[in-house]
Amino acid sequence: MYNDDMTPCQDLVEDSNTSKNTHFQTVLNQYMDRRSFIAKTGSGAMALAFAASVSGCSDDDNAEATPPTGTQPPTPEGTDKHAWSDLKQRPSKLSFKAVEKNTQNSFSVPEGYALKVLYAVGDPINPHNAIKIDSISQSGASYKFRSGDCHDGMSFFGMHPTNKNYAAKESTQGLLVLNHEYLAQDELHLPEAITKGIRSEDQVMREINAHGVSVIEISKDTSSQNVKVNLNSPFNRRITAQTEMEIHGPARGADLLKTRFSPDGTLTRGTFGNCGNGYTPWGTYLTAEENWSGYFARKANDTREIAKEDVALQRYGRGGTGARSSQYGWNTPVAELTGNTDLYDCWDISIKAANALQDYRNVMNTCGFIVEIDPFSVSARPVKRTALGRFAHEDCRCSNPIVGQPLAFYMGDDATGEYLYKFVTEAVWDPKDMNGGYTAGDKYMDKGTLYVAKFNDDGTGEWLELSFDKHGLNASNPNYAFSDQADVVVHARLAADARGATKMDRPEWVAVNPENGEVYVTLTNNSNRGRSYETDAANPRSYVDVKNGSASNSGNMNGHIIRFHENAEKTTATTFTWDIFLFGAEADAAANINLSGLDDLNDFSSPDGMWFDPRGVLWIQTDDGQYTDETNCMMLAALPGKVGDGSRAMAASTKSGGQETIIGAPLKNDRVRRFLTGPSGCEITGVTMTPDYKAIFVNVQHPEGTWPANQSSKYSLMGSAPRSATVVITRKDGGVIAGEALEEKATTA
Q1: 577 - beta bridge partners?
Q2: Distance separating alpha carbons of residues 151 and 683, to the nearest angstrom
Q3: Of 10, 533, 540, 580, which has fewest CB within 10 angstroms of its CB?
Q4: d(CA 702, CA 151)
Q5: What is the dihedral of CA 621, 623, 629, 631, to 10 degrees?
Q6: d(Cα 522, Cα 507) in Å, to the nearest integer?
Q7: What are 589-620's pLDDT values in tens digits?
Q8: Burial level of 301, CB count in 10 A (0-12/13-18/19+)?
Q9: pLDDT tens digits for 566-578?
C-alpha cells in the first residue's frame, strides 16, 4: 500500500496503464490553472484536541505453554444465505466515544478500551529465538523464526481444542495469520549500516525472511480477554520470500512459468509484497501479492526473442531498454555464507543463457498471484492460484457462501488507473468441504471464469469475461497476441485493457457485506485524476487540496469507497448496480468535495484496508499522506445502508459545472465514527476479530518516532527504534467491541 504523495516505497507504485478504453480517454497534457479546481473552504487548519484515551499497556507476557480448553466446533457454515453472518449482534448505532484527530506518536483508542502490543518486528515465534535487548538486528537466518516487517493484511482462524483444525466460532484459541509487506530497512538493520552495491548476504537473508507471512497461535482468557502468543505451538511458522510454492490453475506447467528452479513450471520460490488478504469458506488464508515487480533487476538492452514479451514487461513495470535495478539489490550477494548463489540469481530476470530453463527470465511471471495458505497444514507447500489472474493484488474477498451456488472472489489491482476483478468458481459451494485444505482449494480456485469490471455513468456496470478465444482474446489481438488461457491469466492486465475495463483510482481492499452480499472497494486516491485520467461518475472528483497551507496538491487526493450490488444477487451475474458509499474528505471541505457530509468525528483521507465483521460492522482503515498535517492514520467503524439508498450529486471536477455521480445516503456520526488513530508516520492496516467480538486485532505499519517503545513496558526494554507491530484491543469491562448500543438496549428493555 503506497500513497501518491511519496510516503514509504512510493517508487514502487505503477502507472503503466496506457490503454485507451472506451469510457476513460486520457486528457493529453491539459493545462489546469488553479481556478479550474474547487478548493476547500477555509484554511483546513483546526485546533486539535488530543485523543480522549491513550490506553496503558500491560507488561506483555507472550508465552503460553498450554492452550486453554475450548468449546466444541460449530455446525459447518455455509448452509444458508447468511452463512458467515451474525446479524442479530449488529448494533443499531455506534455509541463508543469517537477518538479525536491527533498527531501524537502513540496509539489512541476510545475511552473504556485497552491496547496491548502483541507481535512486533523481530519477535520470536518459538522459545529458542529470544530477542536481544536493544536491537532487532538478529541474524538473517534467524528471521525464519521471527516476526517479519511491515505488518499488513490479517485474519483469525479459530481452532478446535481437540481436533486442532478450523473451528469458525472458537475464540479462546486460534491461529492469527498476517502479511509482512515490505521493509523499513533503517530499523530492520539497526545498528548496522545498510550495505550498498554488492550486498551482505546476511542482510539480504534478513530482508528476504522479513517478507511473507506469519502464522502464530494465540489464546484469549475468557474472563479478562487477555490475549497471548503461544510460543510452544507447532503451528507457528514463517512463510518467506524463499519458501517453495506450488503453482496451480491454468498457468501450471506453462512455458511462461518455466525457470531454472522449476523446468516444468510447477513450482516457484517465495511470496512477497503481501498486502491485503482474505479467507475461504473451507478455512484457508489468502495472501495478495501486490508491489512485486520492483524486486527484480533487468540489464540494459535485454532484448527478448519474442516481441510480445517486451509488451508484457512494459505493462508490468519492468519494460524499456534501460537497466532496471532491484529495489533491494537481492540479486547482488556472492553467497559468502550459504554458497548458494541461485538464491540470489533468481532476482534477475535478464536473459543469461540459451533458454528459459537455464536462467530466470520467466521468474517474474510466477509473481503477482493470490496465494492460498492452509494455517493448519504445517508441511504442505502454499499454492499460487493462477486462475485468479496476475496483477498487483491488493486484496481478495469471497462472496457469502450459499449452498449449491458458485463462489465469487473479488480483487483490486492497486496501481494508478487499474481495474477491479472477480473470479467465479466452476464448482458450487458444499459445506462438506469445510477443513478441506488445499484439496478444496483445487476444487474451487483452479477452474472458473475471470472477469474485469466496467462502470457505466448511469449507475450500472458490467463484468467483462477474460477467457481465451472469446471477445478477441487470442492471437488476433492487435496489442498482445494471446496464446491460451495461461497467457490470459498471466497477462490479465493486457486482457483487461483489450476488453475496455474502467480505469479506477487505485482499487485496494474489498469487503463483502454479510447482510446482503454487496461488495465494497476502497479507491485510495489518484493525484492524476483530472489530468492523465479524466473524471467519470465512478471516479468523479478532481480538486485542489490544501496541506500545510499549500494548495499545490490536486486530483482525487482523499479517495472514496465504491460499492456494487450483483444483479439478482447472483455471483454469476454479468451486470451490477453501484454507488459511492463514502468520500474521503476533511470536515471543512466544500460540499462538492465533502459529498458524504463528514464531520470532525469521522472525517478521513485515503481509505485503504477494509473488512466487514460477521455482524455487518464495516471497519475502514487509512493509508494517508495528504491529511497527516492534521491527523495520523486511523480506523473507523461504519454501519452501512445499501446500494441505491442515496441520490445523484455534482462533484468537484475539472469538467465545466462538475461531474455528476451517484452517492449513498449520508451517515451521521453514530453510523460512522473514528475508532482509533495510530502513531505518527504509520499506516493502519490489517484488521480481524475473534468470533465473540471481544478482541480486535489491528496492524501498525512503518511508524515513526519511538513507537511502540514509548507505549509498552515490554518493548521499552528493547531499544527505541520504531517498529511495525500487531496490537490487540479489548474493552476494559470485557464487553463486545463496538457493542455498547446493544448493551444499552438490553438495559432499557
Answers
A1: 460, 565
A2: 10
A3: 10
A4: 9
A5: 20
A6: 6
A7: 999 999 999 999 999 999 999 999 999 999 99
A8: exposed
A9: 999 999 999 999 9
